Amino acid sequence: MNRRTFLFVSAVLLVVLPTVASTRLLGDDLPGTRKVPWKIAGQLEEACSCSAACPCWFGSMPTRMNCAGTQVIFIDRGHFGSVRLDGLAMAHFTQSPDNQTMMESFGRWNFSYLYIDEKATPKQREALETVGKIVLPYEGSATTKIQYVPITRVVNGKENTITVGGYGTIVGHLVEGGLGGHPKIVNPPGADPVHREYFQGATTKLTYNDAGQNWNWKNTNYMRGEFTVDSDEYEKFDAGLAQKMAEMKKSSEPAK
Predict the structure, then answer these.
(1) Closest of 190, 187, 198, 194 to residue 221, by C-alpha
(2) Are 47 and 222 in contact (CB under 8 A)?
(3) How far apart are CA 101 and CA 55, in angstroms?
(4) How far apart are alpha carbons 147 and 166 in whole angstroms?
(5) Is 224 in contact with 174 (CB distance < 8 Å)?
(6) Do residues 129 and 146 lie in contact, with contact meaning Cβ atoms separated by under 8 Å?
(7) Could you write out the DSSP letters of every residue in 41-71?
(8) How buried is residue 32: exposed, middle or buried, by Cβ count under 10 Å (0-12/13-18/19+)?
(9) How far apart are CA 108 and CA 15, in angstroms?
(10) Which residues in the chain come in under a pLDDT of 50?
């Protein structure tokens, strides 16, 4: 591991892990749900203000003053305990502080808003909130909000159009690879289980008008992927982060 990678991973672990590890393993932020198993399978739609491919996943600085973006999860099949989550969606919008990477500023982002599919029942909403706080970076800011809105997606040829209530719109398409097909990014340094791999694209449009924002961009970063993740995988993921943090802390201590 080179020095830059070591410093990047160390910063991610030291900042992110103490903040999220205690709340994201099995949905333990809801009373009586600490051991509730969950699983979701579906598609990730993601876009941000950076030029493609977003450098934040590699620990680099945003291509603008900050990185402002969204992740939208469409669930084909899923459950939280006995609560079915098939056909539901959730979205997250956020923004990093100026002149800081997303990773180093985690916990100090300008805002972190979670949007839950309004067609979910009360039990499904509660389940989606719990899972959303695990698979989406909800803990990245002290300024948080949860809202219930319609979340839709329309596929028209190569373009996907995602609408999150009256607040946000993503129109994106995958770009062509030099040897055909579409570029795929696998296991970037900032990867979590949902971002194990994804295809790279570009936006035709990215707008957002909540949280005091007024985004209106095009030709920016767009990502599309498929995933199957569950509570056991995230428990192992967090345990691995804890082990890495302990090893890095030990290796950074002066020799006796």
Answers:
(1) 198
(2) yes
(3) 9
(4) 12
(5) yes
(6) yes
(7) EEEEEEEESSPSSPGGGGTPPPSSSS-EEEE
(8) exposed
(9) 10
(10) 1-23, 25-26, 28-33
Q: Which two tokens stand for residue 7?
A: 């410093």
- Specify the DSSP class assigned to residue 183: -
* 3-class DSSP assignment, residue 22: helix
SS3 210: coil
Q: Helix count (H) and strand count (E) of the chain?
A: 3, 13
Domains in the chain: how many in total? Answer: 1
Helix, strand, coil shares, percent, the chain, to 5: 25, 35, 35
Question: Please, which residues have CB within 8 angstroms of residue 169's CB and are 6 or more apart in sequence?
Answer: 161, 162, 163, 205, 206, 207, 208
CA distance to 5, 10, 37, 152, 246, per residue, from 106 (Å): 17, 13, 27, 28, 19
User: 206-238, pLDDT tens digit by residue?
Assistant: 999 999 999 999 999 999 999 999 999 999 988
Amino acid of residue 215 = W
Extract the tokens encoding 156. 């028209």
44: containing domain: 3-252
pLDDT at position 247 is 74
Q: Which of 188, 226, 220, 223 is nearest to 68 (CA)?
A: 220
CB 229 within 8 A of CB 75: no
Residues whose CB is less than 8 angstroms from the CB of residue 120 and which lie 6 or more positions away in sequence, other chains included: 85, 88, 128, 148
Q: Which residue has 């498929």 as its token pair? A: 226
Q: Which residue has the tokens 């979590």?
A: 192
Residue 255, CA atoms < 13 Å, CB-side half-sphere = 0
